[in-house]
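thought: fold this chain, then report.
action: predict
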Amino acid sequence: MANIPPWSYSSLTKFETCPKQYHIVRVLKKVKEPPTAHTEWGNEVHSALEHRVKDGTPLPEKMQQWEPYAARFAALPGVFAEREYAFNRNLEPVGWWDKDAWCWGIVDVGATAKSCAILADWKTGKPKPDSGQLQLFAAFHMTAEPEVKEVNTLFLWLAHNKATRQDYTADQIPAIWQEYVSRSLRLESAYENDKWPARPSGRCRGWCPVGRENCDFWSPKK
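observation:
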């Protein structure tokens, strides 16, 4: 079998968006995605909220509007922040850097109380209707902690003071894993067969980092 790194929700969706871009950026590493003002701000916000929840470190003045969110989570029993999950192919929890790690992900903030849990992801961008990441995180948590039977998941759209909520129960977990097993098999097939077709879309117009020298479909922003 090819040397396939563990997949995450973001890496799997990047592959599905365009296998060729994934290959150039993540496999060949010919191109590095440059940081943007948005990603740098997102990293800064995530770090500040992590330390506020875990250590009680006050939020910077420019983030004080999100203190109510952070305080609410910090007060929950069993709270955690930036929790790492990794699983092998048998869906057994493993260490993040274990050789048999098959998939992994990090939940921004959450808490467990007996058979229920809440998981949330801080978002600094525009609200989007995709709840796939929340679905996968619910599967991560209930697989790692089988005593948990219900998970409330949230996207917290900080810039818009909105929340997107999806709830999941333990009986849904097998179907969720089956979906992601099927999706990951397509990624594994690309590695095994070294087939990485381009998938042209509107993102080819300057949004893709690979450039004209690596893909004929690339074009500059208009």
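thought: worth noting. Strands lie at 79-87, 103-113, 116-123, 150-157, 162-169.
final: tokens above.
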